[in-house]
Design goal:
CATH topology of the largest domain: Nucleoside Triphosphate Pyrophosphohydrolase
CATH architecture of the largest domain: Alpha-Beta Complex
Mean pLDDT: 80
Shape: elongated
Largest sheet: 7 strands, mixed
Order of helices and strands: EEEEHEEEHEEEEEEEHH
CATH superfamily of the largest domain: Nucleoside Triphosphate Pyrophosphohydrolase
Structural class: alpha+beta
Low-confidence stretches: 153-165, 248-255
Distance between the termini: 44 Å
Radius of gyration: 21 Å
């Protein structure tokens, strides 16, 4: 999208996968200098006249952090808002951009005094402005699906893409179990299983942003998808679930 107004701005949420915690991610927050307010926020910056919003978001993210990013971004979070400052009216467009690798953040001391990678579910308490909190909320809703797709495609969760799924015999223990395309509640549902149905259960669990655990399963007999760990059972997996702090009976009672 090309913007002709010189007073347009971008807000860019830079995020990365949490090391050692598949399905979770962190966001980058920058602390402004005292002269600029001294509060924490994501990357923000102005859009040059005639510059595309996506180009401006990438440029600002790189200029303010020096990080490398995946080529599929920036991604619009479908949120924009207006505000007045220094006698001018601004419109700010919100984007997300996934950092690549474990690069070092390089901040400009004229604008920022510190930076932190913060778990996404904790970052709202760091933010001053409601517009930043809304941007974070939209990122969390979107990024869980993006990361699930990314991890499944790259084989991070269950080995290399062509690797055979290590699985054990299992059975659906809930009255009904939704099967999702990816390991989170917002991904498309691909099937519905009934209590007592037999499945092949992956030997690995995945934790989503809500703290829910999922298994990859094979069912009927060649279809595959993801179900909540508490909806299926296999004797050989009970110890693994207990070690992860999952109590099936208590979780069912809460629901």
């Amino acid at each position: 999208m090309k913007v002709t107004k010189s007073l347009a701005k971008v807000q860019v949420w830079i995020f990365r996968r949490t090391v050692g915690a598949p399905g979770l991610f962190e966001v980058l927050l920058l602390k402004l200098t005292p002269e600029r307010g001294g509060f924490w926020q994501p990357v923000t910056g102005g859009v040059e006249a005639g510059e595309q919003l996506e180009v401006a978001a990438f440029r600002e993210a790189f200029e303010e952090t020096g990080l490398s990013f995946y080529k599929d971004g920036p991604r619009a979070l479908d949120y924009q808002f207006t505000f007045a400052a220094r006698g001018n009216d601004y419109v700010e467009y919100v984007y997300a951009l996934q950092a690549q690798g474990e690069g070092t953040v390089k901040i400009d001391s004229r604008e920022h005094v510190d930076y932190r990678w913060v778990p996404a579910h904790e970052a709202a308490s760091w933010l001053k402005h409601p517009s930043n909190q809304e941007g974070l909320k939209r990122l969390i809703n979107r990024a869980s699906t993006w990361l699930a797709i990314f991890l499944c495609v790259t084989g991070f969760l269950f080995g290399a893409p062509r690797q055979t799924l290590a699985s054990q015999d299992g059975v659906v223990t809930s009255e009904v179990a939704d099967v999702h395309q990816y390991p989170n509640h917002t991904s498309p549902k691909v099937s519905l299983l009934q209590k007592g149905e037999s499945v092949k259960i992956s030997s690995k669990m995945v934790r989503d942003l809500r703290g829910e655990y999922w298994y990859k399963i094979r069912f009927r007999p060649k279809e595959m998808g993801y179900v909540r760990a508490k909806d299926v059972d296999a004797k050989a997996l009970i110890r693994e679930m207990r070690d992860a702090g999952i109590d099936q009976e208590k979780k069912r009672t809460r629901e």
